[in-house]
Amino acid sequence: MRKSFSVLILFALAVSLAAVVCARSVATNPGASADTSAAQAELPLVVQLKVDTAFAYCALEMTGSYDQHGAAFQQLYGEAAKQGIIGAMPFGIYWNSPSDTPAENLKWEIGFAVPAGKTPQAPLVLKKWEYTTMASLRYTGELGGEGMGKAMGAMYKWIGENGYRPAGPMMETYLSMPSPNEKGVFVGSMEIIVPVQKAPAPKETKNQ
User: How would you class 141 by CB atoms within 10 Å of its CB: exposed for 0-12, middle for 13-18, buried for 19 or more?
Assistant: First the structure.
């Protein structure tokens, strides 16, 4: 019962990922994001530095358009169920961006954390999230469009203003089951994570 319930939950969650695709494109150009709704504007966009341990995860590696998200999540959890692996809440990891990469060359993966001793079989892959110093922002609102674009813009602004630079791929971890609001747009909570490292100090120029 628990296994089938988990799969059904994630099948429903996969449906909401189409709304996230357009937001990720906005996030690659933070200056282009506009004001969001009044309800979302009331929620502060607080970025924090997060230090955590590395962890193992079960992944499905993907290439190509983000339009494949729904089918990819269904494959991930369907295969995991066949292999007796109980899926935790999902996340996506994005290795490049549609702002500078053709859609057919986009590299990304979806996955969930797994306990020690679990070894997924193909087409799933056992991987390790090696990054332990990260910028983290918790976002609640519409999963797509201006609200998420503003959140991701705040993330990269904080990174630069605090003497850091991105040091790995962006991760988006879903913290709640998305559900449609009165406008039919999916709303939920997620944690946006960007691995960071200290940026090198600017070189001083000698007077001529």
Answer: buried
Tokens of residue 2, six digits: 């628990």
pLDDT at 43: 61
Q: Cβ–Cβ contacts within 10 Å for residue 76, how many?
A: 27
pLDDT digits (tens, 9 = 90+) for 134-183: 999 999 988 777 888 889 899 999 999 999 999 999 999 988 877 788 88
Q: How many CA atoms lie within 13 A of 194 on its CB side?
A: 24
193: closest CA among 162, 163, 158, 146?
A: 158
Its pTM stands at: 0.77
The token pair that represents 178 in the structure block: 């998305």
Q: Strand, coil or helix: what is 3?
A: helix
Cβ atoms of residues 18 and 70 within 8 Å:
yes
Which CATH superfamily, name and number, covers 2-198? Regulatory factor, effector binding domain (3.20.80.10)
